[in-house]
Design a protein that fits this description.
The chain is mainly α and about 250 residues long. The protein has helices at about 5-40, 45-50, 50-65, 75-95, 100-125, 130-160, 165-185, 205-230, 235-245. The longest helix has about 40 residues, at about 5-40. The N and C termini lie far apart (about 40 Å).
Length: about 250
């Protein structure tokens, strides 16, 4: 396979991985709060506290990435998606206690956070010079379309097909496995994993501040808004998934 064919094949596999991740993430996000409510009947305070182990992997990301620095970036991407598949499988099948569920959620979240920088970096590697923004935009479009499909699956599954949370999470795990295979079979670029220093400069201060504010706003919304719909208004999975779909 020549360089052009290899690049085209890698790009197709990249979009497949992104689509599968968008599909799987939507299937989890649109049903997770109902899973917590119906399985554990937790309070709002407990739901808020659960965000700590879910977000800690984001902080640990830099250390985990450093440990895995001997691997090519795309192999780390495949490993991170595999962690998501393992985490959601365990969460849906072996969550016998709230503590065990928290541990499985940590594994799932670790995979999610580890893949975030890999997605951007891989897209920029695959793009032609000057076309990085276009390729990343297409990737986001593919992910958004896949998220719509994931929401539709959850709506149809829980309202018409008798889905349970276990079935939903098992199906999601298979979707993640497909993404891991696509990512894992991509070729590695010739000069992959160049050492880079952490960029921390005063003139980027506004960007850092906006990043913090964005994260804070997003955290408040993705945690409390769906939880209010589920716990205060008592809406079922199909309704919550429909709201995600509309959003």
């Amino acid at each position: 396979m020549n360089t052009t064919d290899k690049g085209r094949s890698d790009t197709i596999k990249y979009f497949i991985a992104i689509a599968c991740l968008g599909l799987g993430a939507s299937m989890v996000d649109s049903s997770f709060n109902n899973f917590l409510r119906s399985t554990w009947d937790i309070t709002g305070l407990a739901r808020s506290a659960l965000e700590l182990p879910r977000e800690i992997p984001g902080f640990l990301n830099v250390f985990v990435a450093a440990i895995l620095a001997f691997l090519p970036g795309r192999r780390i991407g495949a490993l991170s998606i595999l962690l998501q598949a393992i985490g959601i499988t365990l969460l849906g099948n072996l969550s016998t206690t709230f503590q065990s569920m928290t541990g499985f959620l940590f594994i799932y979240s670790l995979g999610q956070h580890l893949f975030m920088p890999i997605q951007q970096a891989t897209g920029m590697e695959l793009a032609k010079a000057g076309g990085e923004g276009a390729l990343l935009g297409k990737a986001n479009a593919v992910r958004n379309l896949a998220q719509l499909a994931g929401g539709a699956i959850v709506i149809l599954g829980f309202s018409k097909l008798g889905f349970t949370f276990r079935v939903n999470f098992i199906l999601t795990a298979f979707v993640f496995l497909a993404a891991a295979i696509a990512m894992g079979t991509m070729s590695s670029p010739p000069h992959d994993r160049k050492a880079k220093k952490l960029v921390l400069k005063k003139r980027y201060g506004l960007f850092y501040l906006l990043s913090v504010l964005f994260g804070t706003r997003k955290q408040l919304f993705i945690t409390f808004a769906p939880w209010v719909v589920v716990s205060v208004y008592g809406k079922d999975v199909s309704t919550v998934a429909s709201l995600y779909f509309a959003g």
